[in-house]
Amino acid sequence: MNNFSFAGRDLCGAALAPMAGLSDLTLRTLAAEYGAVFTVSEMVSAKAIVMGDKKTRALCTPTPGQALYGIQLFGNEPEVVAEAARMLKEEFAPDFLDINMGCPAPKIVGNGCGSSLMKNPALCGRMVEGAVAAGLPVSVKMRTGFDENHMTAVEVARCCESAGASLLTVHGRTRAQQYTPPIHPEEIARVVQAVKLPVLGNGDILTAEDALQLKSQTGCAGVMVGRGALGNLWLFRQIRAVLAGEPVPPPPTLAQRMELLCRQAKGMCEEKGEETAIKQARTQAIYYLKGLRGAASFRSRATGLTVYRDVVELRDAVLAANAEETRPVEEEVFRKPILKG
Ligand SMILES: Cc1cc2nc3c(=O)[nH]c(=O)nc-3n(C[C@H](O)[C@H](O)[C@H](O)COP(=O)(O)O)c2cc1C
User: Residue 327 Cα, ligand 1 centroid: separation in angstroms?
Assistant: First the structure.
């Protein structure tokens, strides 16, 4: 039984993780189309929402389509989170709100937000209470703790559950571990056992097999995928199939990957204008180029993309250099994440 209930739906598959600077409207739209059970905005500051900051509000545009959509808030003042939640519900009508208790960035932690909250489980509960008051389902994205002296995930999870949260996602590392060392499935399992809420496991899922393994190691209700989905949105279809006990669809061909890169870049241009979009598309492009023959030279070309036409020319050059390559991309290609947060 690989389904779980959240926000009034019965879900089976993987969610797209919130990723600041990456999970923009275009990536979320494509992820939903490729079978993500829900998508979440990049993290937005509760304070900035309350102050009416336009740039922050621009990050909240709901993902179109059938999949659930949530807006992720960071902050550390329950009253501000409550007000931001109320405003977001009114303006964007998301399906749920998510509270960030995992961001390790020094600027965020230094202000007592993100993973800093893992040191104060009671405050975590009050943050959830504030958001729940807006009348939307609330989820929480946390780590296993702040550091090895603050392994608080179980306590934080219980406080969030009592405060009315509907779902928890646990990234299997502490703040001190950032993004690199292997995750700790046993810490995710402790949270699964401590609460009745659905818990999603997160961290280093790069293949459908990884999703199955994390589920069996932790008993988690579902999984959330971040870096593994970059350049490989087919992963959502594969995970959904494997969890539903259906045959796993084959990985994409090189031509399909290059087409999707162009589609994503085009979508980003429409979303935020060509100049900003193509600069940001450089990172996304590097993921699409993983494992290719001549990847190193294509990667350096990707770092210089400036207009949409460059993306199309990159696609053409990649396909020309790999003309005889019609096999699906080997799964091994997707094994190594590039970004470390
Ligand atoms: C570039 C980048 C930006 C991220 N931004 C956020 C964020 O805004 N909110 C959040 O909760 N997690 C954020 N994360 C963490 C991811 O959601 C996820 O928990 C983490 O990358 C581990 O999952 P993965 O191995 O599947 O990527 C970010 C991660 C990366 C790499």
Answer: 31
Pairing outcome for strands 199-202 and 167-174 = parallel
pLDDT at 134: 98
Q: Check pocket membership of 339 for ligand 1, CB cut-off 6 A.
A: yes
In 3D space, the residue among 100, 89, 84, 168 whose CA is nearest the CA of residue 136 turns out to be: 89
> Phi-psi bin for 273: left (phi > 0), alpha (psi -120 to 50), beta?
left
Q: How far apart are CA 129 and CA 134, in angstroms?
A: 9
227 CB within 6 A, ligand 1: yes
Q: Closest Cα partner for 242 from 3, 13, 17? A: 13
CA distances from 313 to 208, 276, 319 (A): 32, 19, 10
Average pLDDT over residues 157-161: 98
When mean pLDDT is compared across 59-68, 159-168, 284-293, the lowest value belongs to 284-293
Mutate to test the pocket of ligand 1, among 19, 71, 175, 287 (most ligand atoms within 8 A of CB): 19
Rounded Cα distance, 160 and 302, in Å: 43
Residue with tokens 């590392």, as numbered in its chain? 173
**Contact present, 285 and 306 (Cβ < 8 Å):** no
pLDDT score for 291: 82
Stretch 189-198: mean pLDDT, rounded? 98
Q: What is the pTM of this model?
A: 0.96
Mind listing the pLDDT tens digit for each residue in 237-263? 999 999 999 999 999 999 999 999 999
**Predicted confidence band of residue 162 (pLDDT cuts 50, 70, 90):** very high
Three state DSSP letters for 66-113: CCEEEEEEECCCHHHHHHHHHHHHHHHCCCEEEEEECCCCHHHHHCCC
Q: Which domains does the chain show, CATH number per domain? A: 4-244 (3.20.20.70), 254-321 (1.10.1200)
For 328, residues 6+ apart whose C-beta sits below 8 A from its C-beta are 250, 251, 252, 253
